[in-house]
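tokens incoming
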């Protein structure tokens, strides 16, 4: 029986036309489930906490060779719709570029792998399994998305031997970067509480603003580190400072600030939390102003050391594009931070220069090329 190849460009367009602004499903997972189940994949909806997720497996459950893919169909809001030159959910193609929210991040990646996977299992059925884990909760809090899929898999005897996450990884040219890890990310909301007073009598007050400034100055006074073999140096950014004091002659009793830290594999969220509190303790002892912290760690730093999986992906990328990819750990967080505890994971996808922007767009030729890369990865893995 002849199999008609799946067009990844048409599939991307269909997905973009699904207005799946997180946490809305928007019809995207329904569309994928219909395609995959029609190609012989066993599909299960793994919805949790109002979030829609899809698990799809072709092949035998528990297969030793099980190649996994992880991606998301939820997208960020369009922002100012009037600023777009094309319908954000129209998937309009102009001069070889498809416009729309999610064209880059990351409906094109999902479409390219789904198309490659369907073609692969139909044309050359492998001795093993191909698994797709697609979530509708990557762009928001990510508590009931990939985490829910992995929890369900653990409870139902499903496992991936390796996993490829299809996030955009290339800064400018398709093929130039593979992500083999990600920095950790944490946000600390800091509150300083002192004693209000008259600015003419500072000795009678405890100046929360002054104490906060001293703490923030100490936090940025020196680099956290100089980087590691696979990571750039860790960074701390002060993102907001707020006193809310309209009077020029009143010493404030309350000050708030927020810092965001992106950290490499020299650190952990717990260790950096202790570091923040230690600095606050020094300032508190000197000023009498008390500090409180509300700290959230969205992901720890992780690394998949260069090895068989990254080499497999790199060979396929070079063969299809002629570009030798670098092994990178730059950028923000992704759901690879959850998959790392399940199996070895790397990331490879399109150029991400317009993701989350007004007029987000993808070069149509790149979608076709990405499907070819993913198809070669599957063929080489099961060879």
């Amino acid at each position: 029986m002849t199999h008609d190849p799946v067009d990844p460009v048409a599939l991307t367009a269909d997905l973009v036309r699904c207005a799946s602004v997180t946490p809305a499903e928007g019809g995207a997972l329904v569309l994928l489930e219909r395609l995959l189940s029609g190609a012989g994949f066993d599909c299960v909806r793994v919805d949790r906490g109002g979030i829609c997720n899809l698990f799809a497996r072709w092949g035998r459950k528990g297969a030793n060779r099980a190649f996994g893919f992880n991606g998301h169909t939820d997208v960020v809001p369009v922002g100012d719709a009037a600023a777009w030159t094309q319908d954000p959910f129209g998937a309009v193609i102009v001069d070889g570029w498809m416009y729309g929210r999610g064209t880059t991040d990351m409906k094109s990646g999902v479409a390219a792998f789904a198309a490659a996977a369907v073609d692969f299992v139909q044309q050359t059925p492998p001795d093993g399994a191909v698994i797709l884990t697609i979530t509708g909760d990557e762009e928001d809090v990510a508590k009931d998305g990939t985490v829910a899929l992995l929890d369900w898999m653990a409870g139902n005897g499903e496992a991936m031997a390796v996993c490829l996450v299809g996030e955009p990884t290339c800064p400018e040219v398709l093929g130039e970067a593979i992500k083999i890890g990600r920095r950790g990310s944490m946000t600390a909301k800091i509150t300083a509480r002192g004693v209000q007073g008259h600015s003419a009598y500072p000795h009678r007050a405890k100046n929360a603003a002054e104490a906060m400034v001293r703490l923030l100055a100490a936090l940025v006074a020196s680099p956290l580190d100089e980087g590691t073999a696979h990571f750039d140096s860790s960074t701390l950014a002060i993102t907001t400072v707020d006193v809310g004091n309209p009077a020029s002659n009143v010493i404030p009793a309350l000050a708030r600030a927020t810092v965001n830290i992106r950290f490499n594999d020299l650190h952990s969220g717990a260790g950096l939390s202790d570091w923040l509190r230690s600095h606050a303790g020094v300032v508190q002892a000197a000023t009498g102003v008390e500090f409180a912290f509300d700290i959230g760690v969205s992901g720890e730093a992780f690394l998949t050391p260069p090895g068989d999986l990254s080499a497999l992906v790199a060979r396929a990328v070079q063969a299809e594009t002629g570009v030798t990819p670098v092994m990178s750990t730059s950028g923000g967080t992704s759901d690879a931070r959850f998959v790392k505890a399940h199996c070895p994971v790397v990331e490879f996808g399109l150029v991400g220069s317009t993701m989350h922007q007004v007029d987000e767009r993808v070069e149509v030729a790149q979608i076709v090329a990405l499907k070819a890369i993913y198809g070669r990865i599957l063929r080489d893995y099961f060879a």
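note: The longest helix spans residues 103-123.
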